[in-house]
Specification:
This protein is an all-beta fold. The protein contains no helices and 7 strands. The chain has strands spanning 8-11, 19-23, 29-33, 44-46, 51-54, 59-63, 68-73.
Length: 82
């Protein structure tokens, strides 16, 4: 399975908008839409086996190996206060 970068910006084949990766615990990640950030639920989560699950909890045909790293890092990170 491909090594992922925290807050790295990625593209997926067939998806126009870029996604950024947010860690959510050990080996768990969410992919958010760069345009909307965390104002919307994550577009995808990453399952333990590397498969991408959409926000409706449906499996997709993509895995982390399909993510194309742009080399950029998402910089518009806003943390919400508890």
């Amino acid at each position: 399975m491909k090594q992922l970068r925290d807050y790295g910006i990625y593209n997926l084949p067939g998806i126009k908008r870029e996604l950024y990766l947010v860690p959510s615990g050990k080996q768990t990640y969410f992919l958010y839409d760069c345009e909307f950030g965390s104002r919307l639920p994550p577009r995808f989560s990453v399952a333990n086996n590397g498969c991408l699950i959409n926000w409706f909890k449906d499996s997709t045909l993509w895995t982390v190996d399909d993510l194309i790293d742009t080399g950029e890092t998402y910089k518009n990170i806003r943390f919400s206060a508890p």
